[in-house]
Design goal:
single chain; 490 residues; alpha+beta; Cytochrome p450; 4-stranded mixed β-sheet; 3-stranded antiparallel β-sheet; 19 helices; 50% helix; 9% strand
């Protein structure tokens, strides 16, 4: 009787999902694993609890069968990297919601813009757009450069090869907290562990994402990793709560002064920050603002850290180009003047150099979406519920779109090079409806860091080539052996 009941339930489910079942059966399957009728690709089982290396091996394996379906029972997934498929994934109305693994972030970021879906996401994006306005972002430039000056001074007495990652991380935290949040926590001077907790958070998120058996909440909540994650989030929240409390007090004071039309030195009192705009909206409660602060911290910190780190390696690997970047900075700004926002458009070669760095080392290498409904991909129809991943690193390094793809060549981003570039072949900040919200701040952080540091030092590295920099993914891209640099004062 129990068996008959189970069979009946299965048949009912299959009947009501017959369209999805039919499309799944018809869709071309991954060829790099053996496919068995009904049960699917059982070879995937060995990746249930992978290491970072096997995780990258798995995505590489899927990418080699770009656009083909991997199926295990009712689980359906695929990887794409060809530009025509990437364009569909990033722009089609049925692929705009993120993969369910982003729900693993809920304890830290709540229902923030990173996780929001549908109309809620549209409303939040529209409301928050002024926080990224050029007039707001441009005011961050001077404070960013001051934070990098502290880092440059810290490196004065280093006379050997070292891993620069931790120092860069603390500098970028200072830049983020001081500019976007208007609170200076002096991370470079104090013994803060925020960057370590952030690193732990990323590792725990990746561990759960890679381990299929940890995906269900009721299972994960029983693990040691879950307890460790809650502890890490507690420590991170202590810092972000402090930021929110301090800035809200400053905001309230500035509001009172503004009412009285009090000015200091004939300058407006208010220097609007990210949090200020959120408070001004009056549509977000305190917890929602804290969630957005956490989101901006995690997303902004990790991507900028990767961007600055790999740019320093790229400069060190290409001494002639490093000198060209340096000379352009001297011509535009000089040896001592602080970078201004207006200078950025004049640093043409630096801009090309940074873009080529992010082509070869995109901070975010893989994004994941879920098919809310079926959608066309090439000559086939992707079934509803399919998990669709985009391998940005593979697209950026594909010989289909880039001649000699591992050669570092900033001229790919000259006017002539851009004219040859395929649409969606370069997407370090994504594209389409859900492109990166903080691109302006990220690029300003990157340029402020490089301009300030390269005027103080020449950079060298024991890495011999781009291929010599072995990569791993910890939410964002990182170098397996670290950001190895040697400095020479100018």
């Amino acid at each position: 009787m129990i068996l008959l009941t189970v069979i009946f339930v299965v048949l009912v489910v299959l009947f009501y999902n017959r369209r999805t079942v039919y499309l799944t059966w018809k869709y071309p399957k991954v060829r790099t694993m053996t496919y068995f009728p009904i049960v699917g690709h059982l070879g995937m089982i060995k990746y249930i609890n992978p290491s970072v290396k096997s995780f990258m091996e798995f995505w590489s394996l899927l990418t080699s069968d770009s656009g083909r379906l991997l199926q295990v029972l009712n689980i359906k997934m695929m990887m794409v990297y060809k530009v025509e498929d990437v364009e569909v994934l990033l722009t089609h109305e049925n692929t705009q919601n993120k993969h369910y693994v982003y729900d693993f972030l809920k304890l830290a970021i709540g229902d923030s813009i990173m996780r929001a879906k549908g109309q809620v996401w549209k409303d939040k994006t529209k409301a928050m757009r002024p926080t990224m306005h050029t007039k707001t972002v441009s005011t961050y430039t001077e404070d960013m450069c001051k934070c990098v000056e502290i880092l440059a001074d810290k490196w004065t007495n280093i006379d050997k090869t070292f891993d620069a990652m931790q120092d860069v991380a603390k500098c970028l935290l200072d830049m983020l907290f001081t500019t976007s949040f208007g609170v200076n926590l002096n991370c470079q001077a104090n013994q803060t562990k925020f960057d370590e907790y952030s690193e732990s958070f990323a590792e725990l998120f990746m561990d759960r994402s890679m381990s299929a058996w940890k995906h269900p909440d009721f299972v994960y909540n029983l693990t040691f990793s879950s307890k460790k994650l809650k502890n890490v989030i507690h420590h991170i929240s202590e810092t972000t709560d402090q930021i929110f409390t301090e800035r809200k007090e400053i905001y309230s004071l500035e509001q009172e002064l503004a009412k009285d039309e009090i000015c200091l030195d004939d300058k407006p009192i208010r220097n609007m920050k990210f949090i200020d705009y959120m408070l001004d909206l009056h549509t977000f409660n305190d917890q929602e603002i804290k969630d957005e602060v956490n989101t901006f911290t995690f997303a902004g910190f990790d991507t900028c850290k990767a961007g600055v780190s790999f740019t320093l390696i790229a400069l060190a690997l290409h001494q002639d180009m490093q000198e060209k970047v340096y000379q352009e900075i001297l011509d535009v700004i000089g040896a001592d003047r602080t970078l201004s926002y207006e200078d950025l458009s004049k640093l043409v070669y630096l801009d090309k150099f940074l873009k080529e760095t992010m082509r070869l080392f995109p901070p975010v290498t893989i994004i994941a979406r879920i098919a809310d409904d079926e959608f066309p991909l090439g000559a086939h129809i992707v079934p509803k519920g399919t998990q669709v991943m985009c391998n940005i690193l593979a697209t950026h390094r594909s010989s289909l779109y880039w001649e000699n793809p591992l050669k570092f060549d900033p001229e790919r981003f000259s006017a002539e090079g851009l004219a040859k570039q395929r649409k969606f072949s370069y997407i370090p900040f994504l594209a389409g409806t859900r492109a990166c919200f903080g691109t302006k701040v990220a690029m300003l952080s990157l340029k402020s860091a490089i301009v300030t540091l390269i005027r103080k030092y020449k950079f060298y590295t024991p890495y011999k080539s781009i291929e010599d920099v072995k990569l791993e993914v910890k939410v964002t891209l990182s170098a397996e052996k670290g950001i190895l640099l040697r400095l020479e004062k100018r």
